[in-house]
Design goal:
Mean pLDDT: 86
Number of strands: 8
Number of helices: 9
Strand order of the largest sheet: 1-2-3-5-4
Largest sheet: 5 strands, antiparallel
Number of domains: 2
Distance between the termini: 42 Å
Radius of gyration: 17 Å
Order of helices and strands: HEEEHHEEEHHEEHHHH
CATH class of the largest domain: Mainly Alpha
Structural class: alpha+beta
Length: about 230
């Protein structure tokens, strides 16, 4: 079976030229590519093929389209999305800077003024998205980029798109968590169908605790222990 990078390049055709792989988490693998016609560098996130195979593609597209309409100075925009040859992918700009996770790992807790600024900017992004009917569902340091003196939230709507496309609100059929236990609200962790934008506010509170103390408020050796803490 061809490597994912080869399959992706064949799927994208001449529109994009893949340069390298950045890595990725449980929900995606991440590649840097050149968008040939515009001559710009973008990030392409690809869902694992075994996960994509269990999705309702039309539902996934609808949710991604909603997220792609978001235009806000503290939200990394979705540029495009596609579904072809068993692959689901979406593209976004390549942000120069580092993730909030990298910053915390390198420097520990942040000075209060900086932490407050980051939280204010993330909260501003959430308020805008919620007003437009989009819930993030996976607010965490890995999904916040620091570029210059600004915080930008990534992957708006992706966890929601996956949950809608699988019909599962916390786990996919292949066991990939839609959300991160450390930052997950109790209602999201129990797959409450009434989970809404307030879950993001809970996650923002967990994020704030970590920025000021250098560690999250709850910990454990397994996701179950974290959720029970």
């Amino acid at each position: 079976m061809p490597e994912l990078i080869d399959r992706l390049q064949a799927t994208l055709g001449e529109a994009y030229k893949i340069k390298s792989e950045l890595g990725g988490g449980g929900m995606s693998r991440v590649f840097v590519a050149e968008e040939v016609d515009l001559g710009r560098t973008v990030v392409i996130k690809v869902l694992p093929p075994d996960l994509a195979a269990g999705l309702n593609v039309d539902r996934f597209r609808r949710e991604i389209q909603m997220a792609a309409r978001l235009q806000h100075p503290h939200i990394v925009p979705l540029l495009s999305a596609g579904a072809k040859d068993g692959l689901l992918y979406y593209t976004m700009p390549l942000i120069q800077g580092e993730s909030l996770r990298s910053r915390l790992s390198r420097a520990g807790e942040l000075p209060v003024p900086e932490a407050c600024r980051i939280l204010r900017e993330v909260a501003d992004a959430l308020e805008y998205a919620h007003a437009n009917g989009v819930v993030h569902r996976d607010i965490k340091p890995e999904n916040v980029m620091l570029s210059g003196n600004h915080a930008l939230v990534m992957d708006f709507g992706v966890a929601k798109a996956l949950s809608e496309a699988t019909g599962k609100t916390n786990l996919t059929s292949v066991g990939v968590a839609l959300g991160t236990p450390t930052y997950m609200s109790p209602e999201q962790a129990t797959a409450d169908p009434m989970t809404d934008h307030r879950s993001d506010i809970y996650s923002l509170g967990i994020l704030g605790y970590e920025l000021l103390s250098g560690r999250p408020p709850f910990s454990g050796n397994t996701p179950q222990q974290v959720l029970a803490a």
